[in-house]
Amino acid sequence: MPPQTIQEALTSQVPAFVLDVNASIRPKLVRTWMMVDPKDVKRWQDFNLTNLRNAYRHIFDLPCPTNPVSDENRHFVIQTLDELKQHGIETLYHLLKCPLQHGIPKLKESVSCSTSEVLCDFKAPATQVDWIWGVFYAKDKTNLVVSCSRLSNTFTSKDLQQKGPDAIYTLRQLATYAALGQTRYGFILTDQEVVVVRFHKSCRDVEQYMAKWEAIPWKASGRDTLTAPLAVFSLILMSLDDNQRHIVLDSKFLRLGGWTPGIPSPGMFFLSHRFLMRYLDKVLDGIRYYGKPKPRMNERIRRSGVYIFDRAFRGQP
Question: Organism's domain of life (predicted)?
């Protein structure tokens, strides 16, 4: 029997988190959090399994022998925010450690990645925020993905969808971690779901941030399902690209589903991913490309002839 793939390993059922709290625990108000205007909070619509697979299929399909979960019905009873942080981050790191070990060498073939190992802690290194939070970072203390935590009786993605004041405040907290950690990627950890977030700046001269988010329930499982572990794994892959980690203006951000057409020579056609050095010789399901074909391509790719296909393809899915 062949070993399971990274995608299979990260889409299996995970332990449940059961909240056992009578009263809600409101977060402590900190007036110095970065500003996030509710009108600048939107869904991250292109953060979906189709786009993630089109971008990272070469990593998701790598073999990844892992130890099976000893008890799929295992659950954690959560009574405090500290318990959620401990069990939630430890669960994620346990699930992601092996896939990252197998995936990073492959990722380095297509992006500028100076990291060989991803570490995890409850407190981010090299920042000025004295707050316990889950974070993934590199050995050289480069922050990759930051996190803050909430119990589900004080925050859910429905609150974020309605742009409630407590939900926006939570985004302001995460934006502060992202700004000080110098990474655009983060997630909000709750006992019910993981809310992945990507930040970018609204303008050059003001410390105000725009946010796009998508929520993934912990209970989601199945190979063709975007699960919480696979979502966080994907955030880490994005952040491992040294050229695509820092917070930038919205106009400079490259879409996750962004493929650009090109014409290497008359009668030929190819697609390249905008922030992955990947070329396709066929149009995969769900791919949409942007812009007009460019008549040049890397000379090495031109000589190989592997990544080009006839321009008889006329439409887009």
Answer: Eukaryota
